[in-house]
Predict the 3D structure of the following.
Amino acid sequence: MSPGAAIPFMHLQPGADAAAIRAAIDRVITRGWFVLGPELSAFEDEFAAASGAKHAVGVGTGTDAIALTLRALGVGPGDEVITSPLSAAYSALAIMMAGATPVFADIDPERLTLDPAAVAAAVTSRTSAILPVHLYGQPADMAAIERVAHRHNLVIVEDACQAHLATAGGRPVGTIGAAGAFSFYPTKNLGALGDAGAIITNDTALADRLKRLRNGGQSDRYHHAEFGVNTRLDEIQAAVLRVRLPLLRGWTDRRRALSASYRAALAHAPLVVQRECDPGHVYHLFVVRSTDRDAMQAHLRSEGIDTLIHYPIPIPRQPAFASAAANFPCGACPIADQVCGEIFSLPLHPALTDADVARVAAAVHAFPEPGTGG
Ligand SMILES: *Cc1c(COP(=O)(O)O)cnc(C)c1O
């Protein structure tokens, strides 16, 4: 097959929104108000409305959004939080930042999110919360996870860092548990030009507490009522996000359409396409599986097509989690172990063209099957 232009995994240069972004940054510079100002409060209102929640609280990163929410809910030292072994490690790092212990329950092989039965089996007398991850933009099985939480009186915090505008069974993610954490890291479906994050919640007291905790625990200027941290979504990033938020619905529709094209074009291809388990999936990533992954990735690279692995190592197998894993056998998540050895992500972003999808699919179909001498 004749190689066309390279297809990078993604690119982060602003596109049609570049002029509006520059104007928004200029507006902040001219105003001379850079932290906790009018851009952040406006973005919080707009993001809450777009996400179907009463409140949004902007913070420095998605990781801080998770850690602060756990702390604000009283989850800390001595508490266990059940989460997924297949995620960005930040999900579990945030649990440790709150002083709690991550406990990993295996994933459902179809959804690749927390298996509710495995969650139920992982509950102990120390369990206080569940942190499901809406991985790749596909919501976790929230109805079943809620039943487990209810039975054991556990609070749910949703890691929605990859799932802006996603819905689970028709309900907006982040509004099903006590709160939902979002990241605006540049590669996310809604990305800033640097680090940024937010929490959404319908609980007014929780939102107020989070606003204190992100700002040094101050109840009033120079009055530190409790131990807080310094993690604010700054005015320049908030202004950038306000330009992009109105575009997010269209970008999400495009991600869904491209994913449907991939699905159709990859029928009968020599790899496994993960099933869409909920129409509220927002396709942060388009993830496929192959038992011959290294060779398939090398083949695609030779055709100029970049792929990545999200994620190659189950979190409990990372050295950083050795202490958490002390009371947790590494082999306890066999499905995550197997899946991590097979998954990889095809290029997917709103600026990808239909021709790009066709080229990627053609390259996949041209993969030499083992034993054909290719
Ligand atoms: C990106 C991400 C995070 C962390 O967000 P940051 O803004 O990078 O701190 C946490 N969980 C998941 C699932 C993510 O994708």
Remarks:
- The longest helix spans residues 248-265.
